[in-house]
Amino acid sequence: MKHIRLILFVASLILCPGIRAQEGGWNGIVPLHSTRKDVERLLGPGNQGCKCHYQTGDYNIFVQYSEKPCSDFRDPGWRVPEHTVINISVYPKATLRFSDLKVDTAKYVKTADPEIKGVFYYFNEHNGTTIVVDEGIVSEFGYGPAKRDDGLRCPSKKKTRAHSISMTTTAEKGFLVVASAEPCTAVSHRCIWSCKGGSE
């Protein structure tokens, strides 16, 4: 029963018009607009050295915060104040089959991981959401900046665009680390990325 409730809850975030997925973000936390204080009101204080890892009964959650305007480690970064939410990575504790979510895949760009067989990223550029699927099982929901917020992007410091990100599992129940993979495609000018930060 708990598993069914989790599937229905996740599906509502992705599918239901007028709810959170349409607005972008997760549970009212919207990248580039919400702050650390907003996150802590919802989830409590973060743990580990970065104070950016959180847990609920159903999820492990990692939130990337801005250190200062245009300071994102991925050039060009975002023009937002310190402690502003940049990305949210939500990792279900229960096993969720991608097919059970009934996602409208026409709204997503599907990209295969260049290094890990069987891993695919479904990216919705409009609202900045990513679903990571490993052998048919959802391993992560990513919530990044929506297309409407492109005006907050900082000027690039490099001649080439940032690289997309692949993910590598470091432990059975550990976190994921980011690794540069290949240039962004023309289809997605914002790179698919994720991180589940390791030990500080």
List the SSEs and their pairings:
Elements: H1 2-15, H2 20-23, H3 36-43, E1 53-55, E2 59-65, E3 85-92, E4 109-112, E5 119-124, E6 129-134, E7 137-143, E8 163-169, E9 176-183
Antiparallel strand pairs: 1-2, 2-3, 3-7, 4-5, 5-6, 6-7, 8-9
Q: What can you tell me about this protein's structure?
A:
The protein has 200 residues and is an alpha+beta fold. The protein has one domain. 13% of the residues lie in helices and 28% in strands. It has 3 helices and 9 strands, in the order H-H-H-E-E-E-E-E-E-E-E-E. Strands 1-2-3-7-6-5-4 form a 7-stranded antiparallel β-sheet, with helices on one face. It has a two-stranded antiparallel sheet with strand order 8-9. Strand 5 and strand 6 form a beta hairpin. The chain is globular, with a radius of gyration of 16 Å. It starts with a helix and ends in a 17-residue tail after the last strand. The C terminus is likely disordered.
**Strand arrangement in the largest pleated sheet:** 1-2-3-7-6-5-4
Poorly predicted runs of 5 or more residues: 4-22, 160-200
Strand coverage percent: 25-35%
The major beta sheet can be summarized as:
7 strands, antiparallel
- Could you give the count of β-strands? 9
